[in-house]
Amino acid sequence: MDELNYLIIEHLKFSNIHEEHPPWVIKNSNIGGRGLFANRDIKVGEIIFRDNPIILGPRSSMLCPIVCVSCYSQENLYPCSRNCGLPICSNQCENSKLHNKECQLLVGWKTECFQSEINLSLLKCLTPIRSLLLTDNKKTLLKLLKSHSGAQHGFEIDILKGKLGLNFKEEEENLMRLTCTVLDANSFEVTVGNEQGRTGLRGLYPLSSLMNHSCLPNTMHNFDKYQNMIVKAATFIEKGQELFHSYTRLVWGTPVRRTHLERTKHFFCMCLRCKDPTEFGTNLSGINCKECGDVALPFYSSDDNVHWECVNCKHLIPNDKVSVIFRVLGSRVKHFGHSDEVQEMVKFLKQKIPNYLPPYNQISVELKYRLIWILGHNPKYLWSGK
Ligand SMILES: C[S@@+](CC[C@H](N)C(=O)[O-])C[C@H]1O[C@@H](n2cnc3c(N)ncnc32)[C@H](O)[C@@H]1O
């Protein structure tokens, strides 16, 4: 713990964001491993700390757009002229300190598949490669962070070796594999871009990554233009309380959050919100009861065994049936978002969803959020003020 604390403070000092008397302290947590705790009362809205990523880079999902590896812009991209296979958008980006270093490394590994074209697979695997460029202190810090075990973590290295035919030294491969497991356990999504195009990167913020999860978090965060993460108090936090953030979207209902946490972070959340089928009276996971027209809510018979039960007539609905309804409606809502679809969105909200779900279910709420982003913001749908 002392070494971790020391290395985090060195990292913050190096990034010029260290505070002399910070309101946090690292301690063992009853919830799991280490956690961050308030060492004094913290007011709502107060900045608790700033953090800077020791690694930042593209996400590994093939659905993510192609971005410049220096500034993450999606415009004017061309392959780096040194044939490293990575996309660049300007001379300045091509000659940035980070890209120069990674370019040298990649060109040194050169195989036939790195030609003068952008190599998408390489781009998606770039973030763990960046761990090889860290200073010794930052490598040690990375090794002290939580990692996940399991075959699904580290597939990026299999792509680099298999599809791209790269051969690394054993210690390079070990560090990159470890980095994948650390990124999967700790990384934050950082949104970059502008109105023309946004994308999510993954960033490893060492101090922030010590915060455990709660579905009722007491912190919130945003990012500045340098990708520093700014963590603030979302509620009043009393001295001694643990600092939590949410690893899921807050608007997701309990079964969706729990499944996500189990699949991606390998634990079952036991917070007060997860234990309350009504989620503090919001009934976010509620589904219409076809028998009596009231609402059925999720009840857990074990960590991963859930069924829906009507609060009025006690009619039971199996999880399989609810999952199909959530999947089909959720997938439709996920793909809405364009201003041309407003009429269709409203129709779906008013006519389709009510056949299955009450208006306070997470899917209805999600769709209303999407409409809010368009109505009053999109030039086609500005309020007339009348
Ligand atoms: C980002 S790390 C958080 C810091 C971690 N406790 C440590 O010691 O480094 C995420 C991991 O912490 C544990 N964890 C976080 N929140 C938890 C919770 N609410 N319940 C159980 N385990 C949790 C899980 O092992 C999870 O994969």
Automatic annotation (TrEMBL):
<dbReference type="InterPro" id="IPR046341">
    <property type="entry name" value="SET_dom_sf"/>
</dbReference>
<feature type="domain" description="SET">
    <location>
        <begin position="22"/>
        <end position="248"/>
    </location>
</feature>
<dbReference type="GO" id="GO:0008757">
    <property type="term" value="F:S-adenosylmethionine-dependent methyltransferase activity"/>
</dbReference>
<dbReference type="InterPro" id="IPR053010">
    <property type="entry name" value="SET_SmydA-8"/>
</dbReference>
<protein>
    <recommendedName>
        <fullName>SET domain-containing protein</fullName>
    </recommendedName>
</protein>
<dbReference type="GO" id="GO:0008170">
    <property type="term" value="F:N-methyltransferase activity"/>
</dbReference>
<dbReference type="GO" id="GO:0008276">
    <property type="term" value="F:protein methyltransferase activity"/>
</dbReference>
<dbReference type="InterPro" id="IPR001214">
    <property type="entry name" value="SET_dom"/>
</dbReference>
<dbReference type="Pfam" id="PF00856">
    <property type="entry name" value="SET"/>
</dbReference>
